[in-house]
């Protein structure tokens, strides 16, 4: 979670006045690289770095370059070529073999801290936006934030020509907001895995013994019956919902409350026979739900304990939210699937 952009922005925002900062961004890659264009991390003047631009192999050297940016107050670009025997990345034994171009920018009052405060505010308001960073020619540091809607959940960062210069345009979305109906023992690893992805998590359970905040750190717990979900002011902010109260009537009430929401994912724990029973109690047919119902929930990973079920559910939800198929990258007997962005 500490590597996610919202967490990095919160860290910077809390310490923006008592530390100096440099923003590091991958703006171009060629061939296989651990992180793609648009990846960001932060460096502070205490010699610490936060986030990752590689698998951990380049960060110490990037930190060395960031120190120079602290002293000069000017942006700079660096390049690591894993395929060049004379390049530092090759000498480190970097295994990816690709080339990564990195932009280092100081966060200063003179450049409005690259508008990170605006970017943070947009994400807190759950707005999607484009973050634009100018690729410097003479060490300048410029950035902009524009609110927009993406045509695809798989929108990627790209270099564009803008105002007689090259800019990196990075699509940025707020973290998904997941609702878990049912806050029993098996919901704990589910919520923990969701939070570890940097997702926002809310729970709904009217039973006093469930949903204790000590078991769900960082989560919002609603002590209401699922049939009251429609009264929540933030109901429209949910991107996905997992119904797992282990009570037929509570699950049925949850499906009734969620049936018209434009969720990107709706899952119900349990086998097909239980799904049919819950739908019957809810007085609903599958086609009456505005979102496809995933039941049984999760990918077929094997395992039957709460941790395994949570992993299977988290993997399926992650795939759906990112427009992926959830299949292995190397199908049996098939070629390796690769995707190289800029």
TrEMBL record:
Superkingdom to which the source organism belongs: Bacteria
Q: Where is the XdhC- CoxI domain?
A: 16-81
Domain called XdhC Rossmann: residue spans: 179-317
Indicate what this protein is called per its UniProt record. Answer: Xanthine dehydrogenase accessory factor
What's the source species for this entry?
Answer: Microbulbifer marinus
